[in-house]
Amino acid sequence: MKKHKILDAPIPMRWVGPIKISGETVSQKISVPLATYETPLWHSVGRGARVSTLCEGILTTVVDERMTRSILLEAEDAGAALKALQSLKLRFSELAEVVSRSSRFAKLIDINSQIVGNLLYLRLEFTTGDASGHNMVTNAADQLFPWILQQYPYLRYSSISANYCSDKKATAVNGILGRGKNVIAEILISRDLCLRKLNTTPEKMVDLNIKKNLIGTMIAGGMRSANAHYANMLLAFYLATGQDAANIIEGSQGVVHAEVRGDDLYFSCTIPNLIVGTVGNGKGIDFVEQNLEKLGCKEDREPGENARRLAAICAATVLCGELSLLAAQTNPGELMQAHIDLERK
Q1: What is the pTM of this model?
Q2: CATH number of the domain where residue 82 is located
Q3: Is 244 among the catalytic positions?
C-alpha cells in the first residue's frame, strides 16, 4: 500500500490572557493558546481574561474524572443476560485485575449497564492517568472480552464499542454519568466591573442566561446543554494542545448558571464531559509539546495531575469566552459590530 506524505494544515494561533485562575489544581495567572479561524474569539476570550485579573479570578474545581468504553454482549434471552450481569457485578475485583494487566495507568472504577432484549450493554468506566484515554480504555475492554467469554460461555461477542460510551456523540448518559473531566469554573464580578469592562449589568446577564441559554436551548431540544458557545473555546483550545477535536461534541454539553449576589454577578460554567490529556496520541508534535510545557502541563507530577491542570485551564478559558459573548449580546448590535471590526478587511 502506498504511503502518503503527512502534511501540515496550519491554523492561526494566538496566546490570550493572562487569565487569573484559582483552586486546588491551578492557582496563578496564565495565558492560553487558542488555534482558530474565528479570530474574534481571541478578543472575546481576552476580554473575559481581563475581567478575571480585576477580581478574585476564576475558581476551578475538578469534580470527577473517568473515561468510558461500552461493550456489547449477546445472550439467548434477557434472563441469561441478567444472570451474567448479576454475576459480573459480584466479580468487580477480578475484572479490575484483568484491566490492570492491560496498562500501568488504566484503572476500572465502575460499570454501568443496560439490557435490551437479549443484548447486554456494559459501560466500563476507568481513570487513565494523564492520557485522555480513548485507546487505553479500548485496549482494556479488548482484554476483558476474552476473559468474560471464557467465564460465561453462553454469552457472545457483538461489539467492542456499543455507543453507550458515548464517544463523540451528544447523549444524556455522558451528562448523567460523566465522560472525561467534570470541571466547574466560577467567577464573582462586581457591578462596577460589569459596567466598565463588560458594558452590562448583573441583572441583564442573569436575565439573558435564563431566556437564551436555558429557555432557548430547551425549546430547541438541546441535550443536557445550556450555554452560548462552549464549542468555540473548546475547539480552539483542543487544536492548540493536541486533543481529539471531535470530542467537542460531548464537551460542549454543559450548563451556564448565573445569579445576582448582592451587588455582584456570580457566573459559572459547568463542563461535565471535558476530554483532555497531556500524553498520548497528538501530543508528540513540536508546537503541541511547547504549548503544553508553557501551560505547565508537562511537569513531573503524580499520574493524572498534569491532565487535571490542563482541564482546569481549559474550563477557565471556556468561562472567559462565554462571559464575554453573553455580555455582548445584552447590547443590540455589539456582537455583529465586533465581527465587522475584527474580520472585515
Answers
A1: 0.94
A2: 3.30.70.420
A3: yes
